[in-house]
């Protein structure tokens, strides 16, 4: 059976290392995993409960439906100002009331050029993912320091240990998804 994974990069940047990493991970994954990339974080309005009363905005409905269809989620995110990018937090806020993420196996990767590897972003997103009852796979989720030394400009993971760890994350994600 195919397992559907929604892949989300927290970076809006064209040359994003996290987006490259996400694509590299998709290529490393077991063949049972089928990926759908959600790349429309920028289309979501700022979270406002007033917009969510009768008909929610189409962009929000689309994000929720993509999540609902997914068996699991992969997130690769940068850290900005010791937290997660506002667009990613905003997307999570839209799910608090609607619940599409509940019990969904989720792998979170936070990659940064800094020696601290996006640890604050990682910690911060886990608080929100736990609040919306996502099933975060702790053993499969990682911070990646010095990312620019581990992935090249072509988007190939050039650090063998990183490649192995991420491949292992994807196997764990596949295992955690109900069949
Ligand atoms: C950053 N960056 C950064 N990195 C980090 O580890 N912790 C942080 O708090 C911040 N804060 C921050 C603020 C601003 C204004 C910028 C421009 C950058 C560096 C960030 O990790 C780096 O730009 C990454 O390359 C961003 O990820 P993507 O876009 O390559 O995926």
Automatic annotation (TrEMBL):
Record-linked Pfam families: FMN_red
Query: What broad class of enzyme is this?
Result: oxidoreductase
Instruction: Could you list this entry's UniProt keywords, alphabetically sorted.
Output: Oxidoreductase
Instruction: Name the EC number(s).
Output: 1.-.-.-
**Domain NADPH-dependent FMN reductase-like: from-to ranges:** 4-145
Question: What are this entry's molecular-function GO terms?
Answer: oxidoreductase activity
For the keyword Oxidoreductase, the answer is yes
| Family to which the UniProt record says this protein belongs | Belongs to the azoreductase type 2 family.
Q: What is this protein called?
A: NADPH-dependent FMN reductase
């Amino acid at each position: 059976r195919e397992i559907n994974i929604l892949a989300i990069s927290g970076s809006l940047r064209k040359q994003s290392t996290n987006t490259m990493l996400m694509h590299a991970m998709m290529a490393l994954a077991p063949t049972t995993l089928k990926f759908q990339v959600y790349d429309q974080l920028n289309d979501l309005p700022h979270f406002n409960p007033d917009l969510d009363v009768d008909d929610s905005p189409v962009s929000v409905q689309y994000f929720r439906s993509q999540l609902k269809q997914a068996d699991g989620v992969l997130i690769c995110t940068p850290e900005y100002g010791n937290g997660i990018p506002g667009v990613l937090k905003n997307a999570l806020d839209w799910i608090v009331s609607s619940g599409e993420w509940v019990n969904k196996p989720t792998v979170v990767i936070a990659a940064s050029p800094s020696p601290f590897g996006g640890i604050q972003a990682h910690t911060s997103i886990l608080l929100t993912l736990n609040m919306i009852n996502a099933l975060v796979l702790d053993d499969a989720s990682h911070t990646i320091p010095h990312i620019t030394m581990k992935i090249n400009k072509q988007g190939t993971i050039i650090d063998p240990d990183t490649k192995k760890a991420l491949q292992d994350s994807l196997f764990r994600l596949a295992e955690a998804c109900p069949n």
